[in-house]
């Protein structure tokens, strides 16, 4: 598959996932199950964009690692801070 | 170097001689920028120091007296902010700018103009902070700026807003600087300068900038939210809502604890370098020393809640953070013992730099041990908010400063070519050390004095008077230093290339001061010795053996090197470089940012007040923004040759070109910025009750506009991908059309958002009869501010895309598509952020 075809296929996938994510709300799931499904879909979409559109797949692993450290820092702050008031 | 030699080496690079003022306004050379940082930081030391002396005069007797109450509060707050932000780190970064490229064998930093920009943003942020004193008084709520004291209800002065904006500008400077240092240090080390061999000062700076990259992004989030609360009327930190003050504490200390090591690590680097040089001994356990520092850098991000033991966070998390805090003291034990053992194994020479470094070690040990008390939850209940804390962190922070003054004496001969007066240096140290301990030690004894307050029990009067005397002795010691250094600069003895026996890092193998291009050819450490490659086959060996301090010698007494005295070279003839070292635009951008932010400080509740003053601030904002846009375009359009490869050691980013790595690093800090915004939203929503949140949101806030915007942004991302494909296929019109599509979709995104916002602003009836405005409640605040920050990123991207379109129209990027690729990295990132904002703010 040429790169252009790959990119186009990913665009279609992203479009479908975004629509699907919105429809989850109306699927009658339990609120918390729906919440995790919706957030999970966001992570999947973000991964597609980062890995293919931002070419992380073709960069040295160290670049992905740096971004992961940033993400971990943000998650640590969010989770620990929220836990601290539970 | 003689004036003539300087003229000749500067020839052809557009850089005026050092004697001209213009040189210092346009220079981008790392050594010049280092000197600018050092001198400016010393100015802020005097600024912050005078404020401290005003406080000490006030504390001569308990109660109001010398200063008015609010003036005292301003002095306390401004002293802390100035010393920590505008003195400590920039002072260390003066040395980092000057020394790190020399130590790693680079001609300059990766982005010389961005380096100059960092400096000018720093200087103008400091001036902006100074201006805040004249806008009804500066911020008076303490350097930690705790909520809710930081919102206009309690600190209503315009000057208080200006102080916050000055910090925003300072963080911009730090971020640019971090990206630049990380790119340079990872990508541009000379051959053989592996991380294993890298000198310890450079190691400390490397770890410092890594911490800066992530920690300052969290501070930026805190400051932007605070600015919004102050200027636009959002409700994050309002006293009436649950979690507001705790949110500030979390954001601030998530930055604030790494900041302790950000300011301390460079001092540790100076200690390590000077201990090695003045004991003639490689540091004991070098590998473990480095490992311990790496560990501390990581651990520094998981200890922040020990600053919050007296808040309402739960006991489980307090206990956890008590454990992590004790954990972080362990690597420090290792470092302290490594330093002490180096002293024992080596033969100590008590020069001024060594005395300051040794003094720093002693002070840091006291500061560290007294800090462990505060890390224990039970003891902290007693000590928090007292002078124990004040004494502890001054022993740590100013203990670090002590080593940095050692660094100033150590590198002064390299930076100026002149030797300081050793006797006066020792007098400075004696006065400094006595003054320091007389100032801060009595605070431990008078620990029950309430912090930040000028009223204290009568029983402590004599201790506070001792402190005040110590403060003046400490202050006076700097008069000796300024006299010594200025006199030496004018009439001091020539220092020679290397005034210190046993020094082994690269800077000492070069002339004092080193020439503009640093090296006579391409430096290499391949053989374990510093050598210079000059054309095919030719190398010249210098006297420096190994940059990491050389191999340990058995008795610690034998010199491993002559310090590079052998180096003599005809620079101009040998180096054959064509790099630029001058640009007026960093200064201009700094000035424009200053004007724009000064204008913003006049904002209240999202608008400028009517009347003359409102018009003045509105004019400044408009003028500043126009100037900023124009200067940025001029910077982008300027032809400027920075350092080019091949570079030698680039682990772990071998195949990532400098600019690309710079973009990725910037995006990593942006991840934390948005992460902290999203984290704030989650935190406030948890504090409010996750599912009760829906009561704060009107029915009219529906999913559809968000979904449409998701489609628009995804499609625009795809359009950027098409643009890159078109550029690779050298299709000029394909490139222009794809970029044009990206632009159009971005504009559509903003128009859709504007329509949505206007609709929500204009609601009537029901629970939100006055409209759903940013100031309506915490839900509206988080919605407008977080999506607004994202919108600003879209707007910035649209400006860049316009620039790219204009250039692509003229045929650019077909032979080199990298700018399109790097713009794509940014644009896709903005897309990714929206992929999270959409469900969080529209669906859940």
A few lines on this structure:
The complex is a heterodimer of chains A (86) and B (844). With 86 residues, chain A is mostly helical. Chain A has helices spanning 3-24, 31-53, 61-84.
Name its key features.
heterodimer; A: about 90 residues; mainly alpha; B: about 850 residues; Cytochrome C Oxidase, Chain A; Four Helix Bundle (Hemerythrin (Met), subunit A); 3 domains; three-stranded antiparallel sheet
Report the mean per-residue pLDDT of chain B as an integer. Answer: 93
Number of helices of chain B: 23
Instruction: Report the count of strand segments of chain A.
Output: 0
State the CATH class of the largest domain in chain B. Answer: Mainly Alpha
The rough form of chain B would be described as globular
Class by alpha and beta content of chain A: mainly alpha
- How many strands in all of chain B? 3
The span between the termini of chain A is: 50 Å
Portion of residues within helices of chain A: over 70%
> If interface size is counted as residues with C-beta under 8 Å from the partner's C-beta, which chains form the largest one?
A-B, 48 and 65 residues
Q: How many structural domains in the coordinates of chain B?
A: 3
What are the segments of chain A in which pLDDT stays under 50 over at least 5 consecutive residues? none
* Overall mean confidence score, pLDDT of chain A: 96
Name the assembly state.
heterodimer
Name the CATH architecture of the largest domain in chain B: Up-down Bundle
The CATH superfamily of the largest domain in chain B bears the name Cytochrome c oxidase-like, subunit I domain
